[in-house]
Structures are given as structure tokens and as C-alpha cells.
Amino acid sequence: MIKELVTDEELLATPCEPATAEDAELAQDLLDTLESIEDAACLAANQIGVAKAVIVYKNEKDRAHVMFNPAMKRALRPYRTEEGCLTHEGTKKVTRYDQATFTYQELVDGVLVPRKKDCRGWTAQILQHMIDHCKGKLI
Ligand SMILES: [Zn+2]
């Protein structure tokens, strides 16, 4: 279901709780909401008002993916860049890593399965932005 975006700073600044297999519907809401927003690349659950660590993002091929409990494990080649945010006014300078390893869980047949992914460039950057959202960190 398509949800309204949340811009309430207090809610967005609250660290998210770990997501569980019960959050399948939340993941679907995130996918539906992401698809409904033109040019949106990624969305975290607290941006639709649920403080759980679930995110969705589109890769370079415009395919949407879901991650439960994403975390960055290894990061290389830091750089400074300027980012905007769907639920926050203006842009801000941040440090991102051009190359990083992410761990997360994927929901497969009702069970969360651990996964690992190496990403670089754009995908690595939006995942770092999403993980910040899960921590309640705003750009
Ligand atoms: Zn954001």
C-alpha cells in the first residue's frame, strides 16, 4: 500500500528497532511507496512512519530491492559529497565510501536469510544514506 512520507524530525531521528519476518507487509508498503514517487531511489521504513530497520532501494538497472536490518561492514575510499533527502529540506555535505560491503537479511518464504553484498559508487552511497536513516541519523 502506498503510504504518506513522514517529515517529522523527531520520528526520523529515532533509531529503528530490528526488523523481523513479521514485517513483510511493511516491506511491500515500502516498495509500493517507492514506486509511487518519481525519481526516488530509496526509502527507509521510518520515512513512512514505522521505526523498523527495513529499507528499499533501486539499483542502477532500476530494479527495486528490499533489505532487512542492513549494516555496513567494510568500507573503502571515503569521499566528501553533498546529498539531499526525500524527507528533509535542503542538502548537506557528508562523508561516504565509494566501495563497501553490506550485510542484511532477505525474506525468503517467511524466513529471514542472512546476505552479504559488495557495492560501489551510487548503490553504495544510497545504502549508506539508508543505513543512516535506520540509525535515526539525518543528513
Ligand atoms: Zn534520506
Protein architecture, described:
With 139 residues, this protein is of the alpha+beta class. It has a single domain (9-134), classed as Peptide Deformylase (Alpha-Beta Complex), CATH 3.90.45. A hairpin with a 5-residue loop joins β2 (54-58) and β3 (64-85). Strands 1-2-3-4-5 form a 5-stranded antiparallel β-sheet. The protein contains 3 helices and 5 strands, in the order ααβββββα. It has helices at 9-12, 24-36, 121-134; strands spanning 42-44, 54-58, 64-85, 88-108, 111-120. Zinc ion binds next to α3.
**What class, by secondary structure content?**
alpha+beta
CATH superfamily: Peptide deformylase
Number of strands: 5
Q: Which blocks of ≥5 consecutive residues have pLDDT under 50?
A: none
How many angstroms separate the termini?
27 Å
Largest sheet: 5 strands, antiparallel
Helix content: 10-25%
Strands ordered across the widest β-sheet: 1-2-3-4-5
What ligand species are in this complex? zinc ion
Q: Please state the CA-atom Rg, rounded to the nearest Å.
A: 14 Å
The figure for the number of domains is 1
CATH third-tier fold name: Peptide Deformylase
* Helix-strand sequence: HHEEEEEH
How many alpha or pi helices?
A: 3
Specify the CATH architecture. Alpha-Beta Complex
